[in-house]
Write a structure and sequence with these properties.
Number of domains: 2
Distance between the termini: 23 Å
CATH superfamily of the largest domain: Spore Coat Polysaccharide Biosynthesis Protein SpsA, Chain A
Strand content: 15-25%
Shape: globular
CATH class of the largest domain: Alpha Beta
Number of strands: 12
Helix content: 40-55%
Low-confidence stretches: 2-12
Order of helices and strands: EEHEHEHEEHEEEEEEHHHHH
Number of helices: 9
Structural class: alpha/beta
Amino acid sequence: MTRLSEHRSPTCSQPLSITAVILTFNEALHIGRCVSRIAPLVQRVLVVDSFSTDDTVSIAQAHGAEVVQRPWVTYADQFQWALDQMDIETDWILRLDADEYLEDALVEEIRSVLPGQPAAVTGLRLKRKVIFRGRWIRFGGLYPTILMRLWRPGTGRIEQRWMDEHMVLTQGHAVTLDHDMVDENLNDISWWTDKHNGYATRQMLDFLQLEHDLRPGDATLETQRDQAGWKRVIKNRVFGRMPLYLRGTVYFLFRFFLLLGFLDGRQGFLFHFLQGWWNWMLVDAKIDEARRFIAANGVDAFKQHIRQRHGYSL
């Protein structure tokens, strides 16, 4: 671990006892927006960087963030390391991605409701609003996506998965706030498709975990009776058992027509098509390829192949 800085810039509003944790790699386009929007709200902004080669570190420092660097393994591993190793002493922890930010109304809501929460409330869920190429994706089941993003230290942990990792409370219960957190990535479509190609590989690994003992699984979220828990149950027990290549088509049609994704306009069509159909066709192609490899060479050879090809240790 390399500690790069530990300083904050003064703010005009009294911060709450919150540590914001943000993971980064080459997020110069977003990190300034993210940090500047939350700096007046929180006592500490902790950026855990995976040795970015752009100006991410200097921009984060310029906005008052504390930056540490650590090699990347997985998102879940990196985030849990931050929770365990970075001496977080505030009353609450906020999880944000670099391309996310809190709307002003949500900042004010957190200021209003957080100090008065009883001890039994150990987590606050936030509603995520996705903006794609300038368009708010309101339909297709995308809004609101409700996520556990603010919790008391020691009351939750992050799932150890390759993809779609969630914070899961281990004690107490959560409430959902009214206003929005925004997910707005400003990179171009080439970057977006490259990112989702990597996501598809990790989705493939999570699905293969249901078929082979690649590494210990984590089914904790399936026991949670909230939106995230029900989505995981459907994904693993219904969607995950559908025939390859069919499910992406069914999912896209369901999102685009039954869940009214067509109301999101031209940019919405592109988003639903790429994220709802192309992405899952790619996941299925990778699963198909992996199954063929395992049938011919065995699980141990597949683990070695994944380590050599993608750098993932199974």
